Amino acid sequence: DEAYTEYVDEPEYPNGLDYLAGYPNVIVTRTFSKAFGLAGLRVGYAVSSAQICDLLNRVRAPFNVSTQALAAAVAVLDDTDYLQKSCEVNAAGLKQLGEGFDRLGLEWIPSVGNFISFRTAKGGAPVDAAKVYQGLLHSGVIVRPVGVYGMPNFLRVSVGLESENARFLEALPNVLEAL
Questions:
Q1: 3-state DSSP call for residue 125?
Q2: Beta carbons of 4 and 34 less than 8 angstroms apart
Q3: Beta-carbon contacts of residue 156 (< 8 Å; ≥ 6 apart)
Q4: Structural domain range at position 71
Q5: How many CB atoms lie within 10 A of CB 68?
Q6: Distances in Å between the alpha carbon of 6 and those of 13, 32, 57, 81?
Q7: Are residues 53 and 16 in the same domain?
Q8: How confident is the model at residue 63 (pLDDT cuts 50, 70, 90)?
Q9: Which residue, 31, 58, 78, sits at the end of a domain?
Q10: Which one of 51, 104, 112, 119 is least enclosed by Cβ atoms within 10 Å?
């Protein structure tokens, strides 16, 4: 699953396409939902061996992607300026959020995607992530709980525009303080 591959700017980061020739059982999936900004259209693609593609085509639903979604996907492939700007905004947002977590003394997991997970804490002590989630929600900020991934004291925040990231970073200390 390489949903975030367009955001990655690290030379040592693996590219699944490099494994296709040596491993005929590999399927690489990518999406237009993230860096290309087409999440609402639910369009992506898979790359694999001809044999696996044949099997997948036998079980996939017919007309599983709309004509409009396909047209949009083709159009964004040619819009390299948009993709570059999207990746630049995301990189700046990751930096802004990481610096904000550092100022608040919160542990966070470095990311190459369009989100960061951070540990909910107050004064270094863990705080119930569900309560922080609810507090942020009441403040008009939506984040994602990640307890189902074995991270009960973490929340995940998506990178937004600079002003949206700032809004989150303003709300978070107020929510933590209220707990």
A1: strand
A2: yes
A3: 115, 116, 117, 143, 144, 145, 146
A4: 5-78
A5: 10
A6: 11, 10, 26, 13
A7: yes
A8: confident
A9: 78
A10: 51
**Does 110 score more than 90 pLDDT?**
yes
Hey, what amino acid is at 66? S
* Cα(26)–Cα(44) distance, integer angstroms: 17
- 31 φ, ψ (degrees, to nearest 5): -135, 160
Residues 147-160 have pLDDT tens digits of 999 999 999 999 99
C-alpha to C-alpha distances, 171 to 22, 92, 132, 133, 141, nearest whole angstrom: 49, 20, 10, 11, 8
Structure tokens at 150: 């074995």
Pairing of strands 121-122, 27-31: unpaired
Task: Report which residue type is found at 122.
Answer: K
For residues 147 and 113, membership in a common domain is answered with yes
> What letter does residue 166 receive in the DSSP assignment?
H
Q: Which of 49, 78, 107 is the last residue of a domain?
A: 78
47, two tokens: 């790359």
Q: Are 156 and 129 in contact (CB under 8 A)?
A: no
Kindly report the average pLDDT of the chain as a whole number.
Answer: 95
Whether the predicted pLDDT of 62 surpasses 90? no
